[in-house]
Amino acid sequence: MTTADDIRAQLQQLGLDSRGNKSTIKARLRKYQKKEPSSNPSNAAQSNDSDNEKEVDASLSAERLTGRKKKAQSRTTDATADDTDGCTDSPTLIEKNSRYDYMLAFDVEATCESGISFEFPNEVIEFPVVLLDGKTLEVIDEFQSYVRPVNRPKLSQFCMDLTGIQQETVDNAPTFVEVLALFEEWLTKHGIILGEYSPTKGHGIDNEHFSPSKKSKKGARKGKGGNLQLTQPDFEYGASFCFVTDGPFDIRDFIAKQCLHSRIPRPSYFTKPYLDVRTLFRDYFDLTNWLNLEGMLKFLGETFVGRQHSGICDARNVGRILKQIAQGFVDLGNENSIFHPANDLLVATPWSEAKIAKFAGGCVLKANRHIDQTREVRMWSFEKVKRLEKRSSEQQQTTAAGSSSGANRNKEEQNEDNMTVTPENEPLKATEP
């Protein structure tokens, strides 16, 4: 009876892996013997081969196996070198670098004012998501909805000019809670969420679970923000996924603020770790500063597609950047390569051989941001915004009145200086009674 040690010894003689239990290594040996009949001990016995001849056959077989591996590696290298655009564009490489079934490129737009503090209580007015296949990073589907702001329904001219979103558009849009319900139906359609139960649909936060501020009552009175506790049951998920954003602002700030405005718990899909592509890009290429979407695309030799600060266009370009860095880069010495020294806009640092090898393998896509649910959301109350706007308006009126008064005085003085004294315009004198 052949023992496991005997089988392992044969595998070692053939230069094969000898790890595993008896059934595993036995199957491995049989598979090899079917491909290489001369290595079968029974066949060798029938042909009266000597022990030395068996060892020679085993050695030759091992050499052939090694040769096949080297040829396979050579074919892989040649395939990479034949690429003409400096990018491997390998589905296998993307799949290797991805850690999720789906990636969701996400970039909201929110109400804003010119020159205002980041503590402004922004309300979401566009909610776009681009669903990417985790294995290929190809676009599967898109979700987009405009959102009607409730607390400050009128958009500023600055906001409309920046985002391209008009007042009529948001006036006819659903509220944020209604948009979340539609979004969750969309996630269910793609198998990311299982079942029809929605923790956010039809559920609000009562005063017991809403605290304007945990740090100080003084801060709470000033409207400096608040905390949300996730009290509703979680979803059941049918696939792994990761949101991808340009910076931490969309999920960390805008979604957090809007959930406070809508008095709903932060949905659990927005509590999971997410991928900040702006930070990933900076770290992957060893840059000293963040680049915005346009800057990252320019670095890659690409241009922004669509309208900047349109949420759906921004999300699509986030997906483009993600695919570029996941599929890797090959230095072909042409002008389209990010490594070409003539491309001053593209080359941030001198590329060493080690860096070039790293970039050829592509960037691993995994979450690099985590949600701290105990973090206080710092923002002004809407009452404070009204007070600030009133004060600013009064100051502008005072300044305008002062300027107008000063202008009138200057005009009068100038007229007096230019006056020609005639009997008609001679100053009146008081007459004696």
Descriptive notes:
The protein is 43% helix and 9% strand. The radius of gyration is 35 Å and the shape is elongated. The longest helix is centred in the C-terminal third of the chain and has 36 residues, at 382-417. Strands 1, 2, 3, 4, 9 and 10 form a 6-stranded mixed sheet that branches. A two-stranded antiparallel ribbon has the order 5-8. Strands 6-7 form a two-stranded antiparallel ribbon. It has helices at residues 4-13, 22-35, 41-46, 51-81, 91-97, 157-163, 167-171, 176-189, 217-221, 249-262, 277-284, 293-299, 311-326, 353-360, 382-417, and strands at residues 102-106, 109-110, 124-133, 139-146, 193-194, 210-211, 227-228, 236-237, 241-245, 275-276. It has 433 residues and is of the alpha+beta class. Mean pLDDT is 76; it is low at 42-85, 202-224 and 416-433.
Report the β-strand fraction as a percent range: 5-15%
Tell me the series of helices and strands, N- to C-terminal. HHHHHEEEEHHHEEHEEEHEHHHHH
Described by strand count, sense and barrel closure, the largest sheet is: 6 strands, mixed
What is the overall number of helices?
A: 15
Using the CA coordinates, give the radius of gyration: 35 Å
Look at the helices and sheets and give the structural class: alpha+beta
Rounded to the nearest angstrom, the distance between the terminal CA atoms is: 149 Å
Shape: elongated
How many β strands by DSSP?
Answer: 10
- Overall mean pLDDT stands at 76
Portion of residues in helices? 40-55%
Low-confidence parts: 42-85, 202-224, 416-433
